[in-house]
Amino acid sequence: MDFRFTEEQLMIQDVARRIAQEKIAPSAEHHDRTGEFPLENIRTLGENGLMGIEVPAEYGGAGMDPVSYVLAMVEIAAGDAAHSTIVSVNNSLFCNGILKFGTEAQKQLYVRAIAEGREIGAFALTEPQSGSDATAMRCRAVKQADGSFVINGKKSWITSGPVAKYIVLFAMTDPAKGPKGITAFMVDTTKPGFHRGKTEPKLGIRASATCEIEFQDYVASADEVLGTEGEGFKIAMGVLDAGRIGIASQAIGIARAAYEATLSYVKERKAFGAAIGTFQMTQAKIADMKCKLDAALLLTLRAAWTKGETDKNGGRFSTEAAVAKLTASEAAMWITHQAVQIHGGMGYSKEMPLERYFRDAKITEIYEGTSEIQRLVIARNETGLR
Question: What family does the Swiss-Prot or TrEMBL record give for this protein (predicted)?
């Protein structure tokens, strides 16, 4: 097995690292404190091909592979997790599904604007009463005689909802069919019938604006259906597989930032006349942090490589994506916890970014499939039992 990266992969990693270090990290505290959406930085990421990493050049993207996406996401997340959340949604949840299931006109209209960073995209699946149980959705799309659909209902926890121009929406078109009665739509948030709720106050990733959205007699034309009618659940699950690789990458970036800060700290901080990095208990924590970080990265790269192969040859990468997300998110939570502990009082202080890493890490165990759901996906795929 060849673990070396290509020149192109290293190039986009370097671009992401430079922007993260020069623009994102220096502004992270401000955006976390104020909750201000980092539009200027997102525009910069878009101008450098990072809002559409796997999007072909003909649709405004960088035309890179899934491994390149992981490498770039890790760097951005190490600078600030909130920025990487926005990048992940645009790349994985928005562009990915349209590229696979959209028409040529949809790709040109929706993907290009997002990939170039001119507009922001969002993904609307979760509802107030249904999180992990996506099939329990109440948002309804009723087909009209002219082929259009009238949509009514609410969606919650929509990342980038307050600022998105376009949204991939999932609504029930035939409740009697259950999952096969769900259809995906492209939504233009400037059209009548679309309403945004208040921006949610969150524990972490505070600069990635999140809100509830509501549809009141919103009309979606026939050419705004993504894929075919009744194919929505299949689209959503496939998109979430890709999204889980993005969140695993985000978790690795957060964990790496906490780990690197801790490495520096244990060499400088002295107690009882010695650097605390010489204490065996501290060394044990450092060793475990390193092992979990490397394991998470390698599993995530495996998932990305597998996705690249399935993009070319067909198939699924659900298990690999779930393993990566579960391992990386729980590693990030554990590593940031230990980082705060090692830093002691300074780790608890807002004067250092450790407490932000700790807060940001938690969401990676929740969104795009909780750790419990990842275990369910893995076990069902391994046993074949439902």
Answer: Belongs to the acyl-CoA dehydrogenase family.
pLDDT tens column, 326-379: 999 999 999 999 999 999 999 999 999 999 999 999 999 999 999 999 999 999
Is 355 one of the catalytic residues? no
Among 127, 224, 330, 368, the one annotated catalytic: 368
Amino acid at 89: V
Query: Distance between CA atoms of 336 and 341, rounded to whole angstroms?
Result: 9
8 A C-beta contact, residue 208 and residue 161: no
Rounded CA-CA distance 42/47 in Å is 9
* Residue given tokens 């949204």 in the structure block: 167
Q: What CA–CA distances, in Å, run from 2 to 125, 173, 268, 333?
A: 38, 47, 37, 30
User: What Rg, from alpha-carbon coordinates, does the chain have?
Assistant: 21
- Domains of the chain from N-terminus onward: 7-120 (1.10.540.10), 122-232 (2.40.110.10), 233-383 (1.20.140.10)
